[in-house]
Design goal:
CATH topology of the domain at 22-67 and 79-116 in chain B: Immunoglobulin-like
CATH topology of the largest domain in chain A: Immunoglobulin-like
CATH class of the domain at 22-67 and 79-116 in chain B: Mainly Beta
Shape of chain B: elongated
Number of helices of chain A: 1
Largest sheet of chain A: 4 strands, antiparallel
Order of helices and strands of chain A: HEEEEEEEE
Distance between the termini of chain B: 81 Å
Shape of chain A: elongated
Number of strands of chain B: 9
CATH architecture of the largest domain in chain A: Sandwich
Distance between the termini of chain A: 26 Å
CATH architecture of the domain at 22-67 and 79-116 in chain B: Sandwich
Strand content of chain A: 25-35%
Number of helices of chain B: 2
Structural class of chain A: alpha+beta
Oligomer: heterodimer
Largest sheet of chain B: 4 strands, mixed
Chain lengths: 147, 127
């Protein structure tokens, strides 16, 4: 059990390192800003994950996505965000430039902790999906009283 | 102004904005007979943080994204940025009638063509 947690912690550290490296590379190939890392597909939404102690907070960039077209699945420490963005070009227009394709996307994550799926809240506003994921009781930090 | 005052001067908000990394937003540019329509992805940008500046045939679109950062970062794939991009605007655009709306992080900017620039059917009279 301890060994597993060590490995998990190590993988977490590696993820953080990889993200730091990605942001480093993003500085170089910033074609129209969204310098994509090699791992994240063009259509996958980019995310930030924070740990606030009792909760995990996930923010995803989803410009132009409607609430009805977005699906979030959670099971234990597995999280999946999927959906689609409709073409928003009105009829009868000539296209000069198209950098925002209509697309379906799907991205899944292994969260660092199990979360209480029943208490998760999600809001979609201004093109950002913000989710608050309360950690399950067993995963919450605990104050230990010293005898 | 003595030296102490110079040291004590605080940074103005406008200067802080300039420190943000600048990235160009993805855009679609569409045109029909009466207008040019520009759609830009500005996820997380609020209406009041968007500035559209037109001068000398150039339009600069700028939107600042502020993020509420809490807790310890497990991973970060995007940050506070200024979305900024400059476009050439044809003379035929009626600058006074440009209007825009922002919804779900997408800016829709309408650039109407002036009446004289719209295509016109010319009647040929029998002579």
């Amino acid at each position: 059990m301890t060994r597993w947690q060590d490995i998990h912690g190590m993988l977490g550290a590696m993820d953080l390192f990889r993200n730091q490296m990605n942001s480093l590379f993003n500085e170089f190939d910033r074609s129209h800003g969204y310098g994509q890392s090699w791992e994240i597909a063009e259509t996958s939404p980019r995310t930030n994950l924070s740990d606030t102690g009792d909760n995990l907070e996930l923010i995803a960039e989803l410009p132009g996505v409607n609430r009805e077209e977005l699906t979030v699945k959670i099971q234990g420490n597995y999280l999946e965000i999927s959906g689609s963005r409709r073409a928003d070009a009105p009829e009868g227009y000539t296209v000069h430039r198209a950098e925002r394709p209509a697309a379906t996307f799907s991205r899944s994550f292994t969260l660092p902790y199990e979360v209480d799926a029943a208490k998760v809240t999600a809001t979609l506003k201004d093109g950002l999906l913000t989710m608050t994921l309360p950690k399950s009781e067993a995963a919450k930090p605990r104050q230990i009283s010293i005898q | 102004m003595n030296e102490n005052q110079v040291v004590a001067r605080k940074e103005q908000p406008a200067e802080l904005v300039r420190q943000l990394p600048v990235i160009a937003p993805a855009v679609d540019i569409l045109e029909n007979e009466s207008e040019i329509l520009l759609h830009a992805d500005l996820p997380g940008v609020l209406r009041d943080d968007i500035a559209i500046h037109i001068d000398n045939g150039k339009m600069t679109l700028s939107g600042t994204r502020r993020l509420r950062m809490t807790g310890a970062a497990t991973w970060r794939e995007f940050a506070e940025v200024e979305f900024r991009r400059t476009f050439a605007v044809p003379q035929s655009i009626d600058v006074d009638k440009i209007h825009a709306d922002l919804k779900d992080g997408v800016l829709r900017l309408h650039l109407p063509k002036s009446e004289s620039a719209k295509p016109r059917q010319i009647e040929i009279t029998a002579g």
